[in-house]
Amino acid sequence: MPSPRPTLFLTVGLPGAGKTTRALELAREKTLLRLTPDEWMAPLFGHSDAGGRRDILEGRMIWVAHQVLLSRASVVLDFGCWSPEERYAIRSIAEVADANFTLEHVEITESERRARCDRRWLLAPETTFEMTQADQDRFVSHYQPPTDDELSYGPMPGPPAGLASWPAWASHRWPTLPLIQAS
User: pTM for the whole thing?
Assistant: First the structure.
């Protein structure tokens, strides 16, 4: 009897919206691996980006998630993924592994989200990074929430110009992610 298809869950949203809480719930309910860059960045580098190292770490986490899916187990990537390109690329990684993809969009009111970020910094600074109001404004200006088409898993658009596939775009976006191809 074939193994059931695994699922790649992707939490999407701004800092403080509840992505990690949702990822923890999924990991506990479904007994799956959870990969959260913030839990690695602070202990390893002491900063949320640390000179571009976040992209390096995320690329390896996506590769690990792909390996987990190939083993027929499920995984949750707790990333945020502020652009549709990032979300389509990760969705394509799941498809190449013959896995399901579930986008978990998490959002709350902007005032509560900012208050949560401030509280977390005051109460547990070792788990987060200080975010000024200017940082928060910048985050909001860069964030592109998932569209209804993304949330309904409509057809994926073609990859951006100059790239042959979404996995190729992903390898370009996350430099430590090897090019993942269908076997």
Answer: 0.91
